[in-house]
Structure formats: C-alpha cells, structure tokens
C-alpha cells in the first residue's frame, strides 16, 4: 500500500496574500516546493499531494507524475479554499510536511492545524516552534543557558536610544529578513522612530557586528542530530536588506568549523523539541573569528535545501521524511562548491 505525503508550502499554496505583492517570496517558496517534490517523487512506494495557486508546478516532470497519479496537485486561488483543503489533506495523509514563514504565527498555526487532525507532522513540536519563532524569547533562553548569541533588547513604546551604533531593528517574529533595518547613526534612528505610525512592541534591536554570515542545517530524528555542511550567506544591505542565496560549503578554518558545529550541537541539546530539517543562522565575528554566535533558528525548511541537494548523491527528502531509515550518514561531494539563488538556480564552483 502506498504512503501519502502531503507537502504544504504556504507562500505558493494559494492561501498567501503576499504572493502578488512580494513576487520574490513567491519565487523562493516555489523553488523550495519544486525541490522537495522532485526529491519525494524519486522515492518508491509513496504518493505526494500538494496545493498551489494556478500557474505553478507546470514542469514536465510534475505533469508526468500527475498523469501517473504519483502526484496530486490541488490548485486554488482563495485563502479560504486553501485552508479547507489543508485540513482535509492532513487527515488523509500518512505524513505532513509544513513549510511556512514564522511571521504572523503562520508556521505555528498551520502546524497546530495539522497536529489537531491527528496527522504525523514533520518538524519541531508547536511549543518549540513558538519559542524559536520569537527572537526575544529565544534570546533569553539562549543567554540563560550560556549559548553565545547576539545581544538583544525589546523595544518599548518609548523606544530609548540604542546603546550601540550601527544597530539593527528586527521584527520580533520576523522571517526572511522582512522589515529588517540598519541604522548607522542616532539621527537615522530618531528620524525613523518619529515617523513610525505604529508602536514598537513587536520589534527588537541588536548591535551590528562585523563578521561572516553563515548558515547550517541539521536533520534531527529520534534525538539524533546530523549537521549538514556549513554554508555562507550572500546578503545585500544597499539600499535595503536583501537575501541573495549562498554558497556551500563555506570557506572556513578548521577550528572555526569545529566551533560552529559545537555551538549547534549545544543548541540542539538545549531544545529537544527540535526535529526534522532545522536551519541555524550563525555569525562569525571579525574580532573573534573562533567564537561564533547563534543569530536565530529556523524551525522549518530553508532555501539552502536547494543548494544542499546538489552536493549529495543521497535523496535529502528521503532522509527528512524517514524513508531512508537504517542508512548511514549522508554522503557529501564537497570537491566542488555550489552557489545557489533564492529562486532555486545554482552554479557549481571550482
């Protein structure tokens, strides 16, 4: 009997109002969904279901899989229709893979919906998603546990002047760098704050640290944590923050690599509710290149998946879903690096 896997990627599901106003988010979500579906369809003995807005998943491989009834695509253009289908599909699936951003409690809410149907859901439990999605709460937990992280302060309505410049302002429950601002001088801060029309209760500030922006993912199953190769993030700050993909593996000294691996291992030990594919954003400060700090945790699939799958002969989706049970560690071909873009395009580097 075939196992059914339901994959829900919110940004391109037909239920996301940002899809029209933020085409870059739609492209990024589509790239992740296409990569996951392509890998899942290589696994014998499973059927895959998903839900997208019209016009997506038109590549020949998906059309053929639909004809062979290995892939079922529900196309919707109304948020209400999508949420109804989401719950129905969760009830009918053997395994549910929820991919959604953390802002507006989207990942948390949709994971709860899936859990409430009785489905077997990949990823962290709702309590851990709630913690890791809240940058202020996570900072306090990490600081108390002695895990190196960036100094973080919660902005109040009064919004006292940050003690250090340059500094960053972030949404407390943000994802993907949306709304991320950098202030170089107190004057810039004052101009921004006096021009705000809403309160600052949902914002945090952090000092700007010069350093190398890195990311890594881990596959966590049954208290076993396998760290994937560490990658570099490509970020732009002019005229505003923009995530431009990355490079895997990162160019690092062995001692720095070991320090990052230890940092992530300690974090996983601290948060036993982490599960499935989990992303970690790391900063390697220029002043302390052997003392990495944890920036944030992404309790979901990240865009780096599209790069990772190009560096292994193994099927990443089979590992995330548990269909590769009994196999040894993932194999990696790191003789060449891979540069990947948010839209899923990539280039092999010498």
TrEMBL record:
Domain ATP-grasp: 139-325
InterPro entries: ATP-grasp, ATP-grasp_PylC-type, MfnD, MfnD_preATP-grasp
Pfam families: ATP-grasp_3 (PF02655), preATP-grasp_3 (PF18301)
Protein keywords: ATP-binding, Lyase, Nucleotide-binding
Presence of keyword tRNA processing: no
One Gene Ontology term of the molecular function aspect: ATP binding
Organism superkingdom: Bacteria
Stated name of the protein: Argininosuccinate lyase
Taxonomic source organism: Gimesia chilikensis
């Amino acid at each position: 009997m075939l196992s059914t896997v339901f994959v829900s990627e919110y940004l391109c599901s037909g239920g996301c109002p940002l899809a029209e106003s933020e085409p870059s988010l739609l492209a990024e979500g589509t790239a992740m969904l296409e990569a996951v579906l392509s890998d899942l369809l290589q696994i014998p003995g499973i059927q895959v279901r998903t839900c997208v807005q019209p016009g997506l998943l038109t590549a020949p491989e998906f059309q053929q899989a639909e004809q062979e009834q290995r892939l079922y695509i529900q196309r919707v253009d109304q948020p209400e229709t999508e949420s109804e289908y989401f719950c129905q599909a969760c009830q009918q699936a053997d395994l549910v893979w929820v991919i959604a951003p953390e802002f507006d409690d989207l990942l948390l809410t949709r994971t709860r919906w899936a859990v409430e149907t009785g489905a077997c859901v990949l990823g962290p439990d709702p309590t851990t998603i709630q913690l890791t999605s809240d940058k202020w709460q996570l900072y306090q937990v990490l600081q108390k546990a002695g895990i190196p992280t960036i100094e973080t302060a919660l902005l109040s309505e009064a919004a006292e002047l940050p003690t250090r410049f340059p500094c960053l302002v972030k949404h407390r429950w943000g994802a993907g760098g949306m709304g991320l601002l950098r202030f170089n001088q107190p004057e810039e801060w004052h101009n921004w704050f006096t021009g705000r029309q809403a309160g600052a209760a949902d914002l945090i500030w952090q000092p700007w640290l010069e350093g190398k922006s890195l990311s890594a993912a881990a596959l966590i199953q049954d208290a076993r944590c396998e760290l994937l190769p560490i990658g570099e993030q490509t970020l732009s700050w002019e005229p505003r923050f923009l995530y431009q993909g990355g490079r895997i593996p990162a160019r690092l000294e062995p001692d720095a690599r070991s320090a990052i691996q230890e940092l992530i291992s300690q974090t996983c030990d601290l948060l036993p509710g982490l599960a499935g594919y989990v992303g970690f954003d790391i900063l390697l400060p220029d002043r302390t290149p052997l003392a990495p700090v944890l920036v944030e945790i992404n309790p979901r699939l990240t865009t780096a998946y599209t790069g990772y799958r190009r560096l292994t002969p193994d099927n990443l989706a089979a590992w995330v879903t548990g269909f590769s049970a009994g196999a040894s560690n993932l194999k990696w071909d790191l003789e060449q690096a891979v540069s990947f873009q948010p839209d899923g395009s990539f280039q092999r580097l010498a």
